[in-house]
Fold this protein.
Amino acid sequence: MPNIGLLHAGLNAASLRQQAISQNIANAETSGYKAKKVVFEEILKKQLANQTKFVGNQTDPRHYTIGQPNHVPVAKIVENTETVMQNNQNNVDIDEEMTRMGKNSLWYYTLTEQINSEFQQLSIAIKGRV
């Protein structure tokens, strides 16, 4: 899997996670609301564990696929229906959400720095060092 594609998928996951956390915070007092979270890292780990270096060259659509193609995973939103935090059946823990928001912000910043580094390396490879 190319680095830039993985970093892009990670940025998309962090953006989606920020939206989910914001929705959770906005609905912290809404009765019956269930907290949502984004699952990406688990999907990525599972895909990387199942990845093989051997991939067959499919010259005809009727041929069987040998190995797994290198698709970049997509983040998914899951709803936590297991727990209840308040009497109104809401399960949003505002302290946990604020902590997750800070962690996600740091993760997003780290990914943007890494993708900037990748593009700088490409730029140097194309233009040469000035």
